[in-house]
Amino acid sequence: MKFYFFIPSLRRVSGGVIVLYRLAYFFKQAGYEVYAVHRGARGWRPWWAKDILSVVWDRVKLHKKDFWIVPEGWFNALLPGLQSNAKTIVYCQNWAYLFSALPSNCKWQDLDVDFWAVSQPVAWFIEHTLGIKTPILRPGIDLNLFNFNFKKNQKEINICYMPRKNSALARQVIQIFNQIIQKKGISHKINFLKIENLSQEDVAKVFAKAHIFLNTGFPEGCPLPPLEAMASGCLVVGFTGFGGWDYMRQIIPDKYIPSFPLRSVAWQGNGFFSADGDVMDVVLNLELAVQWILEKDQKVNKVLENAYKTACAYSLDIQKESFLNNFIKKLISNDSV
Q: DSSP strand E in the chain: where?
């Protein structure tokens, strides 16, 4: 039994690629033969995955007992697994791409594939649309890299964001927010810090000095940047991407929640969240978060405590333990995966 992960060849850091390599790494640690498969030149890979063997697409020889694992949205990449009768898996990291790349004359139910989901919202989406229950393989974050920081510079407020995620909406939020701050005559210096084209180490440095993370990404399967921000002592404000509801919980009572059932979690409100695309609600939440910081409101510490508790539940150690003790055991015992 061998495990082949199809890895899209990307030039820059990608959260989805990191998650794929992390799963491959865990399989290797569990004693399995693991390969990262590429079409053409190998793209970016994390340093800790250097021992995972790479193989070019056209040199792969699959057998019936092998696993061929492909992220959603790469429909053509399923062919080697399907043609060889290998165990073909679609690892769905973003619910929004599950159907977008599917040819119009094809249905998932007609294909001999199984699904893994990256979060409870994604698993719910697959079950609701396809009638298929899926195992959940959540991602993890490096708590040695993203460190909790209660004491941050209070002379100015730093709000960081990732402009590549819905950049037009991010600009709109910032423009409206700045106008409101100007109208209210708030003189405290407020900076917006861009996070773009940075290594994970440099992203961690930005989070370490930021007070707020403005999350503009959607759709999402289980977004990692908000978790990394929570681990770094940032208030998280913004959209959830649907998949963020795996861990995101409202700090303000009676605020927006999704229509599907949220799972029970061990933490309470950990951020200020808006319906995807609701720019004005994000602006109002951002305004409130800044107000709490300026007024040194004790609710800030409570949110940060809940946020850090959330981040700890997604540590690499927790991810590895869940993978080895739950998922792998089911795989070995031939239970449904």
A: 2-6, 33-38, 53-56, 67-71, 87-92, 113-117, 156-161, 189-194, 212-215, 235-239, 272-274
> Which residue's entry shows tokens 């229950």?
133
The per-residue pLDDT for range 136-185, each reduced to its tens digit, is 999 999 999 998 866 788 889 999 999 998 999 999 999 999 999 999 99
Residue among 174, 237, 228 nearest 204 (CA): 228
Q: Which residue has the tokens 């730093």?
A: 158
For residue 193, list its beta bridge partners.
Answer: 160
C-alpha angle 300-305-309 in degrees, rounded to nearest 5: 150
Domains of the chain: residue spans and CATH: 2-140+317-332 (3.40.50.2000), 156-314 (3.40.50.2000)
Q: Is the separation of the CB atoms in 206 and 228 below 8 Å?
A: no
Cα–Cα distance measured from residue 83 to residue 70, given in angstroms and rounded to the nearest whole number: 14
Cβ proximity of 40 and 8 under 8 Å: no
Q: Which residues contact 29 (CB under 8 A, 6 or more apart)?
A: 320, 324
User: Taking 60 as the threshold, does the pLDDT of residue 335 lie above it?
Assistant: no
**Rounded distance, CA 45 to CA 49, Å?**
7
